[in-house]
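just leaving the lab so this will be short. below you get a single protein, a line of residues and a line of whole numbers that encode the local backbone shape. id like you to explain what the token line says about the fold, in plain words if possible. thanks a lot i owe you, the record is right below:

…
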Amino acid sequence: MDLDWNKIIIGDLNFSFAAEIVIRSLVMFIMVLLVLRLSGKKGVRQLSLFEVAIIISLGSAAGDPMFNEDVAILPAVIVFAAILLFYRLITYFASKSQKFEKLLEGDSLYIIEDGRFVVMDESNHTFAKDEFFAEMRQQSIEHVGQVRIAILESNGAISFYYYSDKEVKPGLPIVPKVYRARSCTVMESGLYACTFCGNTENLAAGNHQCKRCTKNEWVGAISTLRLS
């Protein structure tokens, strides 16, 4: 089958409209930046799911006027104004009602307490453990026992509160080479950490269930101090 590359790449584009596309794109890009600036947000990491939905809506409204000569810019500007108005109204009501804010933004989620993972229903696990471990390593955390509290915020950021050096507990290692040595069979007696919840126990050689979460996969616990 012969491909019509001219149709695929150029299509019905009128080259006299190309310059207009550049101007339209610049105008809509400036409009998106302006609305985001008026929303008061300074960075992507500050965005909640609600605000991501706002940005998607802005992108949808901005897209057609950029390259579709049948769509004028003014209707998109009206959409932008409506979105900004909705945003301001919704954030106002959220500031007045904690229940509405919770419905809109969601709750913060405790991930680690007292050097161990919080045991929760599988349906409540809204994060991937590998990604969470990567985030911990970026904070110079080597094992879960260094962390007193970790909270997954409603905007996706993670807040860590650490033990002092004197309080660090033996914990589940998150360094890949060490963590990959996990096994359901303990080869020799010692202090081990459950790979599911981070609970530490002194175990003899053999197979064991975690007393805290009933899982049966273990890795040797470590108690190194955090590098600050």
Q: What stands out?
A: The chain has seven helices and nine strands.
